[in-house]
Amino acid sequence: MINNEDFLDEIGDNHFSSNAKNPLRADAFDITDEEKIEKIKKDVENILQTLGMDLTDDSIKGTPNRVAKMFVKEIFGGLNPAKQPKASTFDNNYKYGEMLVEKNITVYSTCEHHLLPIIGRAHVAYISSGRVIGLSKMNRIVEYYAKRPQVQERLTMQIVQELQKALGTEDVACVIDAKHLCVNSRGIKDIESSTVTSEFGGKFKEAQTKREFLDYIKLDTQF
């Protein structure tokens, strides 16, 4: 019989997600960023001390504060809805009706199972139904949802859903190809493998449109 701890380890090692949304508590933002940094700093100090590290050494004594600031201000900053980018859209006055693709958007995220990096590229496309969005906003949407403990499937879906809401169309697609250091540097230690996820909405579910998008991004994976 598998005990609960073994079951939870199995979920994490196999990269399963139990929630289509990031699992945040209702009181997630009841304390300030500065208070969070102080609490996390003490936790990191405890981890390092438990591992036997000498926190009086000049090289490491600032690590707890650096890690705490990095967690709150940088790599997990996308958890805070106050930091969500404003997805400004504009009328499609030039009547461009074909697919718009922005490919090779850098993805830096963190696996929520082992808190190790996910590094890769996102390829995003949409077909305007009357509204267009600034190119940099597409990058910022990817960055915002990537900056949180994540699973790649959820990240892919969140990017598409955010653009669908902003543009008022279902015709949005996203493909992410990324390396997971929890696979590459531990566990199976397969340094060559990467993970490809996709989400296709509206017209992108049609074979011809989907193929055109995949041709644009030069991805041979079959969906």
UniProtKB/TrEMBL annotation:
Pathway: Cofactor biosynthesis; 7,8-dihydroneopterin triphosphate biosynthesis; 7,8-dihydroneopterin triphosphate from GTP: step 1/1
Gene3D superfamilies for this protein: 1.10.286.10, 3.30.1130.10
Reaction catalysed by this enzyme: GTP + H2O = 7,8-dihydroneopterin 3'-triphosphate + formate + H(+)
InterPro entries, sorted: GTP-CH-I_C/QueF (IPR043133), GTP-CH-I_N (IPR043134), GTP_CycHdrlase_I (IPR001474), GTP_CycHdrlase_I_CS (IPR018234), GTP_CycHdrlase_I_dom (IPR020602)
Superkingdom, taxonomy of origin: Bacteria
Residues of the GTP cyclohydrolase I domain: 40-217
Enzyme Commission no: 3.5.4.16
Matches recorded under Pfam families: GTP_cyclohydroI
GO molecular function: GTP cyclohydrolase I activity
Enzyme class: hydrolase
SUPFAM superfamilies: Tetrahydrobiopterin biosynthesis enzymes-like (SSF55620)
Residues annotated to bind Zn(2+): 111, 114, 182
Keyword annotations of the record: GTP-binding, Hydrolase, Metal-binding, Nucleotide-binding, One-carbon metabolism, Zinc
UniProt keyword Transcription present: no
Family, per entry: Belongs to the GTP cyclohydrolase I family.
HAMAP family recorded: FolE (MF_00223)
NCBIfam families recorded: folE, PRK09347.1-1, PRK09347.1-2, PRK09347.1-3
Summary of subunit composition and partner proteins: Homopolymer.
Name this protein carries in UniProt: GTP cyclohydrolase 1
